[in-house]
Specification:
Layout (H helix, E strand, L loop, with lengths): L51 H6 L12 H4 E9 L4 E7 L5 E8 L2 E2 L2 E2 L1 H17 L8 E6 L3 E7 L6 H7 L4 H20 L2 E2 L8 E3 L8 E3 L6 E2 L18 H4 L6 H16 L8 H18 L11 H10 L14 H10 L10 H4 L3 H4 L21 H13 L3 H17 L6 H8 L6 E3 H10 L6 H9 L8 E3 H8 L2 H4 L5 H12 L6 E2 L1 H9 L12 H9 L7 E2 H8 L42
Helix pairs in contact: 5-7, 7-10, 14-18, 14-20, 16-17, 20-23, 21-22
Bound molecules: adenosine-5'-triphosphate (ATP).
The site of adenosine-5'-triphosphate has 21 residues, from β1, β3 and β7.
GO molecular function: ATP binding; calcium ion binding; protein serine/threonine kinase activity
Pfam family, one: Pkinase
InterPro entries: CDPK_Ser/Thr_kinases, EF-hand-dom_pair, EF_Hand_1_Ca_BS, EF_hand_dom, Kinase-like_dom_sf, Prot_kinase_dom, Protein_kinase_ATP_BS
Length: 605
């Protein structure tokens, strides 16, 4: 039984004191890396830590519309960590015993309303978590609660520590670094495909799921993320000084800024240092700060944290990055080319995260298997279903509930019309040999558990839950098809628009040619008794995704646009978690599946 500490409340936010850590890179006795943290989430004194533009536009609110009764559902456990905005504890589901992390953000008020910047930050964080769905590269959001004093975000629990802590243990081999960088880039590419810029990509914001050497890596903390479509330009300075891109300092930036920060992370993983470590100004500032440190504490080592941002920012903007020193000569030309391409100062020259996933340095990680999404560069839509099942489920998880329900209705129409279903009906029949029309949840879970995938029990449950749109504990054929179908192909069929029109008319119960709040509520909640799906924020959250003109209704054009599957949402962005044939994991994850090769029975599409 866990101790039940009193409900935690983080202190009010203020500027954060940077903390330090040390690292000895290969071939160096003196070099070190510091653990850089966002200074109040901002790179410049006075700049906002929250999404300013959105806060200015958003209406004043008194509450978020999340669920209530956190304490009825979860028992609070030990403290996991804290940041400038939140404290994070273990939380145990009282009915299932499953362990989660709960991130508690104390509410800040201006009079009777939530302080706008705080409200925008929390709302954005929750919306981004929802947009990422059940991505295996993100610690997924299980539920959001609130009461009078705080919002509680229940997240997947990551127990393997931060990437930063592992970097400190010692230098990574090139292959190990490449594996980690690939997971970072997958998270970034998935966000970018959803029109989300992260603005705080750094080793501290990636946690390992478990202690295994090859543990999955998950992104946490979307506090600085902002919705930003390709072509949008942002102007507020936000990020963590050591990782911030030059164009962010110049206050005109977009999605490529995240690629730069991922490049700094890759550089650190490969060398243990920052690329400007031998810039003369930086060395001088560091030596002065070290001498000052040693004078006061008798021990040098923390000086870099007190180096002025001015010195650091000048280095970021103009320092010559040197790739001739140890250990670069020992690294492959592909590794060097990869990092150099990410650290180009002109953001237009930088490859996108999705393009980098196809870079030869990452592609060679799983050259024998076409299924892991890191290499090959395309064509996964045509791969056997068993190889891409987990990727398809993750992609479907990013669609949001309204789109998922609408696609299930389109799938039902296709079934009625006798349209061919890309082999999905055959794969379903194999799981439902008796032809009952329904696959029990446990049968599908066993499929994932024993079918040659490396997934924890928690990952299996959350991946499968989205199949079950009506939460009746089984998966029917329309739910199966809607989750696994390659909708980009269906969209090209001439019947597409008429199918979508029929579903729109079904949702638009009063025939007004637009879907109202009440109609949306009926679609989103009526078929399910699941409390998490029927929160007051369910309709506003759906409208925030779909209602492009902000009139509070969903028009047919908005509905059609919502159902469009963008080319950017490629299966390659998601990990397949397929265990290589004959492959074996080094250990079984906590609560995870027994490792082993073997083909998946769902396959054959
Ligand atoms: N899902 C999780 N599982 C385990 N630990 C977590 C999880 N999420 C967060 N933590 C821990 O809690 C700490 C604080 O979380 P987080 O960084 O999200 O807070 P924050 O206040 O938003 O941070 P910041 O100050 O960077 O804005 C993290 O450093 C991490 O150690």
């Amino acid at each position: 039984m866990l101790p039940a500490p009193s409900r935690p409340r983080p202190a009010a936010a203020g500027p954060r004191r940077p903390s330090t850590g040390t690292l000895r890179p290969p071939g160096s006795s003196t070099a070190r890396a510091v653990r850089p943290r966002a200074l109040g989430g901002s790179v410049a004194p006075g700049a906002s830590a929250a999404p300013q533009d959105a806060a200015a536009k958003g209406p004043l609110i008194k509450e978020f519309g999340f669920r209530s009764g956190f304490g009825d559902h979860y028992q609070l456990g030990p403290l996991l960590g804290s940041g400038s905005f939140a404290t994070v504890h273990v939380a145990v589901d009282r009915s299932t015993g499953e362990r989660f992390a709960v991130k508690t953000l104390t509410k800040r008020f201006l009079g009777e309303y939530l302080e706008p910047l705080f409200a925008a930050r929390v709302r954005h964080e929750v919306d981004v978590y929802r947009a990422m769905g059940q991505s295996l590269n993100v610690a997924h959001l299980e539920a959001a609660f609130e009461d009078d004093v705080a919002a509680d975000l229940v997240l997947e629990l990551c127990e393997g520590g931060t990437m930063w802590q592992r970097i400190r243990r010692g230098a990574y081999s090139e292959a190990a670094a490449a594996r980690i960088v690939r997971e970072v880039l997958r998270a970034v590419a998935q966000c970018h495909a959803k029109g989300v810029i992260l603005r705080d990509v750094k080793p501290d914001n990636f946690l390992f799921l478990n202690d295994r050497e090859d543990s999955p890596l998950k992104m946490v903390d979307f506090g600085l993320a902002q919705f930003c479509s390709p072509g949008d330009v942002l102007h507020d300075r936000a990020g963590t000084p050591f990782f911030v891109a030059p164009e962010v300092l110049k206050q005109s930036y977009s999605l490529p800024a995240d690629v730069w920060s991922a490049g700094i992370t890759a550089y650190q993983l490969l060398t243990g240092r920052f690329p400007w470590h031998n810039d003369p100004d930086i060395m001088e500032a560091q030596q002065a700060a070290d001498a000052d440190d040693a004078g006061r504490t008798g021990r040098a080592g923390g000086g870099m944290t007190r180096m002025t941002n001015k010195t650091l920012f000048r280095a970021i903007i103009s320092s010559e990055f040197d790739y001739s020193w140890d250990p670069w000569p020992a690294h492959s030309p592909e590794a060097k080319d990869f990092v150099q391409s990410m650290l180009q100062r002109d953001p237009e020259q930088r490859p996108t995260a999705a393009q980098l996933l196809r870079h030869p340095w990452l592609a060679r990680l799983d050259a024998p298997s076409a299924a892991d999404g890191g290499g090959g560069g395309g064509g996964l839509e045509g791969a056997p279903l068993s190889d891409t099942l987990v990727q398809r489920l993750q992609r479907y998880g990013t669609y949001g509930r309204l789109k998922q329900i609408a696609l299930r209705e389109v799938a039902s129409l296709m079934l009625q019309d006798g349209t061919t279903l890309q082999g999905l009906a055959d794969a379903f029949s194999r799981l439902d040999p008796g032809g009952s029309g329904r696959v029990p949840f446990e049968v599908a879970a066993a499929e994932l558990r024993d079918g040659g995938y490396d997934l924890s029990e928690s990952e299996i449950r959350t991946l499968l839950l989205q199949f079950d749109l009506d939460r009746d504990g089984t998966i029917d054929l329309a739910e199966w098809v809607s989750a696994l179908m390659d909708w980009a192909k269906v969209e090209k069929r001439q019947e597409w628009e008429s199918w979508v029109h029929k579903v729109f008319d079904q949702f638009d119960a009063d025939g007004s040619s637009r879907i109202s709040n009440e109609e949306l509520a009926r679609v989103l909640c009526a078929a399910s008794g699941d409390e998490e799906l029927c929160i007051p924020d369910a309709v506003p959250a759906a409208l925030r995704r779909v209602d492009a003109d902000g009139d509070g209704y969903v028009s047919f054009e908005e509905f059609l646009a919502m159902l469009h599957t963008s080319e950017a949402e490629a299966l390659e962005l998601f990990p397949s978690r397929r265990i290589a044939r004959g492959g074996r994991r080094t250990a079984t994850p906590r609560g995870g599946s027994p490792a082993g090769g073997g083909g998946a029975r769902a396959g054959g599409a």
